[in-house]
Amino acid sequence: MMQVFKGKATITQLQWLVWIFVYIILFLSFTSMDGLKEGIFYTNLYVVYYVMIIYGNIRFLYPRFYETRRYILYGLLALLLLLFTGVGRGYVSTIVYNTYFAKPGQAEPITLLNLLKFVLGGGLIFALSFIFRIAIAYFKLKQQTEEIMVQKSQAELNLLKSQVQPHFLFNTLNNIYYEAYREAPRTAALIERLSDIMRYFLDESPMDEVPINTEVKFLENYLELEKIRIRHEVQLTFTKQFNPDLRIPPMLLMTFVENIFKHGIDKSSLDNCVKISLVQEDNYLMFETVNRIYDRPKQNGSSGFGITNLRKRLTLLYQNNFELDTHKNEQSFTAFLKIPLA
């Protein structure tokens, strides 16, 4: 059973209110004509009859047969439902009336015509069941909408709270940058790159697409920060040929670049060489990285997951319309990515 949402009536409670209202209307109608005992009997009989037809349709027949496109079977079972409930109601009401309420000589016969009237009377109730179903669907949708709005408001509040610390950190980095700029301009430049990377993570990465120049700037900042961890200079070439108006999903190229510094750099070597190219050709964007291979012990969990996760993401974005390939020879490791452009 659904729980009460924000103190408001649930769908189940609303249905109970409807049926109580129907019961009261029928009870007042029957008792005014037939007396208390007969009114109670017919009120209960009619309410059970209505419940069987309405819920038999909206809870069983409609979802299992009509919504699964078995229309003929749905129609036949609907007729059987009306026949069963109509005949049952006719027999019960006639027998009880003749036994307990009919005066001598006023007993009603059970005829095919009388039973057919009960069956046909159920047709209107069957039609009303669709209105009942629409009303239930409306209130469910309304409750779901209210829940979503509450969740949205809570998420916005959490976001505002989460932005306090990043803004404080950015302000602090700016102050450190200005202090460092007077004494060590190169250090200040690195602080600025770190600040740009953090802003990218906060502002750009949640988006569906970002300008390609923004993505490239992010990669360049990352490359410069990684290079300071290496003792000797890295021979790095980054070839860029693309339309600056292009937009691509964020963080799509990062896996290859990250793997270069995880597996393709020897901090003590004088011969670290990295080649990166990002080239637009026709309606495709191609990204390729090439780095040297060094013999080193393999660390547990150090590789494999990044490319696997990237492939899963590409499949969600482009289905099968992309190329992702990695291969190596005796001296170098190459990673290649080709994605379509909208």
TrEMBL record:
Keywords: Kinase, Membrane, Transferase, Transmembrane, Transmembrane helix. Pfam families: His_kinase (PF06580). One of its GO terms (molecular function) is kinase activity. It comes from the Bacteria. The chain crosses the membrane at residues 16-33, 39-62, 71-92, 112-139. Residues 155-232 form the Signal transduction histidine kinase internal region domain. This is Sensor histidine kinase YesM. The lineage of its organism: Bacteria, Pseudomonadati, Bacteroidota, Sphingobacteriia, Sphingobacteriales.
